[in-house]
Batch of 2 targets.
Target 1
Amino acid sequence: MQLQGQSVLVTGAANGIGRAIALGMARAGADVAASDLDKANVSTLKAEIETMGRKCIAIEADAGDVAAIDAMVSQTVDVFGKIDVIVNNAGVTRRAQIMDLTEDDFDRMNRVNTKGVFFCMQRAAKEMIKQGGGRIINIASIAGKGFAGSSNVIYAGTKGAVIAMTRLGSVQLGPHNITVNAVCPGVTETAIYDAIMASDAEKQGVPEAEVRAKALEKIPLRRSNTPGDIADMCVFLASDAARNVSGQSLHVDGALVPD
Ligand SMILES: NC(=O)c1ccc[n+]([C@@H]2O[C@H](COP(=O)([O-])OP(=O)(O)OC[C@H]3O[C@@H](n4cnc5c(N)ncnc54)[C@H](O)[C@@H]3O)[C@@H](O)[C@H]2O)c1
């Protein structure tokens, strides 16, 4: 119960990594504000968290929209009385080579992955400064550290931006007792990854199982992440054990990409 009594807001909480983070935070004792565009799955998550004896609010919100971000942080503070931790997890991508990427791709990915993360950080920090401290956790990616197998170049740029914003954010928010860290997942078994594997198999004209096996061969630990692997790192960063860890971009990738 490392996070007993804490108030945690997670974006993109309805599925995949965000869902695992929300459940991991609740398991560690926190109350959770779970936000996503996917109203149905975020409601299911709320019910699951409540059966664990924790409070949960399900918020239907677009993490790329500044007004929606303001409202989601306000709702968290109104209901729980504070926001101790925000996990900026919502993110979008698609598998594409550099010459196939469009302006729409650029705007769509940057709107959620870059602009959304910045304004979530800023809006949550406004409350945390008033409270006297807090934890900001940004879900970046090893794509932002140049992983050659990344879904696309624009996505890699958005995640590189998250890593840089994490670093400078930690410097400017540190005096307010706010830690800012990024987690860089490697290969993680979720819908995003399934779509990438399916797309690669189709392009290469080989069975998807073969593409998946080849991807695993490149990982020194020969293991992909479960979403729970990322959740465990987030719970650590939210906990008192990580009180003096800030400005870091921590890989959870089985040693796939050197830092
Ligand atoms: N899966 C991987 O291999 C992997 C690797 C590195 C980094 N990541 C990052 O982890 C994060 C989560 O990825 P995932 O694999 O769980 O993806 P996912 O597609 O399984 O889930 C993403 C969730 O975000 C929500 N979402 C998308 N756009 C949104 C928006 N505008 N507003 C609110 N919610 C929105 C979706 O509805 C969904 O519930 C992303 O930031 C992703 O870039 C994933």
Target 2
Amino acid sequence: MTAVTISRVARTFGAVRAVAGVSIAIEAGELFTLLGPSGCGKTTLLRMVAGFCDLDEGSIHFADRRIDTLPPHRRNTGMVFQNYAIFPNLTVHGNVAYGLSARGVAADDMRGRVERALALVHLPGYGERWPHQLSGGQLQRVALARSLVIEPDVLLLDEPLSNLDAQLRVDMRREIRALQQRLGITAIYVTHDQEEALAISDRIAVMRAGRLEQVGAPAAIYRAPATPFVAEFLGATNLLTGRVAGREDGHLLVDALGRRFRLPAVDAAAGTDVTFSLRPEALQPVTVAVAGAATVAGEIAAAEHLGALLHLEVRLGDGPPLRVAMLDDGAVAPAVGRPVTLAYDPSRITVFPP
Ligand SMILES: Nc1ncnc2c1ncn2[C@@H]1O[C@H](COP(=O)(O)OP(=O)(O)OP(=O)(O)O)[C@@H](O)[C@H]1O
Ligand SMILES: [Mg+2]
């Protein structure tokens, strides 16, 4: 198990500041995810750890050893790519053994190591197959085996599942997580799929335009996003801006969408604008008043059944409708045009002070 310390790392391509001064301390054995929109610098940062991209500034250490000055093959990282990067002219065995031959491992030692790596990814006995005889999920397992067979100190995965269909993606992310935990290997995982990031990570760094916007455990970031960008990028939300009307019972009273909301008290004077994030599942239709809950009244503008979940759009006084997500237990008849009262717990709202 190896800790990874990324210190003030930066890289510019022409006019593009791809990575703009990033510091991250990744703990030994941690699965750490870089999450962010296309072009925010995830791959560049991962390539700098692997040694495929030079740093303009900063340093990277594996435990106490500085590695950013070493060539890639001396860093002992395993890398898995989005497009598998499997050699079509080599068998499965040849593909997995590739990194070992490059490291000068003896042939008889190699066979056992390749077989063990294939067993790890649930492909025992597949060594003599050719890549064209494998499914997408199996190819990705071969890529994983190839990166693990060298017993890397750090496993780097760049959108490893994005070529797979939805169900396989869910299965494979569980397998990768289970394997990473069983081997106790430190892993850096790149994705722009927020659900994937929430599901598999010990911690997530949300990146934006070459910088870290927030770092933390999945649930912590989801519950307390540091910025409006994070609130919108990690999970769906209603991002609202309203005017502070005053205070009452330890809450901030804010007018938005033609209604009055009760928010957690933050430092904001009456008459100023605040932005706040109200998650769809924090809003629940009620038929009777709930003691202590704040409410807003509106009208159902749209309804969508998604199996276990019911999504509503509820129009309030003015502006865009609020998004509401609830378990579809049949308690609410989601008829468009019907009036509805939504209850929420003010403590579940995140306020971004001005
Ligand atoms: N070799 C390069 N030459 C020029 N520009 C580059 C190079 N590599 C990356 N960039 C630019 O740096 C920025 C960050 O790119 P990067 O590939 O790291 O983004 P990303 O977060 O991985 O995006 P995606 O989710 O689309 O894979 C982009 O603006 C990209 O165009
Ligand atoms: Mg990328």
